[in-house]
Amino acid sequence: MVYLAEFIGTAILTLLGGGVVAGVSLARSKALNGGWIVVTLGWGMAVAMAVYVVGATSGAHINPAVTLGLASIGEFDWALVPGYVLAQLAGAFAGAVLVYLVYLPHWKVTDDPQTKLGVFSTIPAVRNLVTNVLTEVIGTAMLLLGVLGIGSNSGYVSVEGGVDLSGLFTNGLAPLLIGLLVLAIGLSLGGPTGYAINPARDLGPRIAHAVLPIPGKGPSDWGYAWVPVVGPLVGGVIGAWIWQLTGFGG
Fold first, then answer.
1. Helices 2-25 and 113-120, axial angle in degrees (round to 10)
2. Which tens digit of pLDDT belongs to each residue from 2-61?
3. pTM of this structure
4. Which residues does UniProt call coiled coil (predicted)?
5. CA 134 to chain CA centroid, nearest Å
6. In this model, does residue 143 exceed pLDDT 70?
7. Of 131, 111, 139, whose CA–CA distance to 195 is shortest?
């Protein structure tokens, strides 16, 4: 059940996240030229909705960097890591296929192959692999710090002689706060690389781009594909260990 939840959660993430990129990018879309604010808000809400749907079942990692980061500090069972990662990759692929189907008429009328690839995968604004990796490391470390911080503050606070509603608000709002965290990362750190901060979110859709019959799609840029995989995995572990070593979680 947890693997199914990770599959569905990552599919939701990719459907809504890739969908907003398609909406602002593909020719004759009603959202065409919506801009970066629309993209980052769409991705943030995509994460929030995915966490709301599957969080109670699997913890809604929906990201191999989160899974690996948590496992590295002993907050997640290593035995579950391979299954989680495979489910996340499969879910991201499935979500990308759904985006392809939703925008089916728009691929043919969109001329630029890079625009089509950008719906599925990240493309750096300035191609410098060293700084591109560094950007993904920093962004994903911030993601893990934020996720762990939100989780740490989602408990009940004791109030003598009163009714405590803090748990209701913090637990109910936690997925939305995580979505806002992703929005903040996108607005602040997403400009250089498009902020994958999630290996599944980039690799699964990139595979979909490679195999789907998209008219005039061009190459899938496999020479860059390792950057949004390695950078987030390293950043996830770093962010988790910063949290662990500082003792912020108590």
1. 150
2. 999 999 999 999 999 999 999 999 999 999 999 999 999 999 999 999 999 999 899 999
3. 0.94
4. none
5. 17
6. yes
7. 139
> What is the DSSP code string of 157-182?
---TTS---HHHHHHHHHHHHHHHHH
Identify the CATH assignment for 1-246 out of 1.10.287.610, 2.40.50.140, 1.20.1080.10, 2.60.370.10.
Answer: 1.20.1080.10
Q: What is the four-CA torsion angle of 22, 116, 29, 204, rounded to 10 degrees?
A: -30
Which residue reads 């803090």 in tokens? 166
**Could you give phi then psi for residue 156, rounded to 5 degrees?**
-80, 145
Return the closest-CA partner of residue 12 out of 44, 61, 50: 50
**Can you tell me the distance from the alpha carbon of 138 to that of 227, in angstroms, rounded to the nearest whole number?**
13
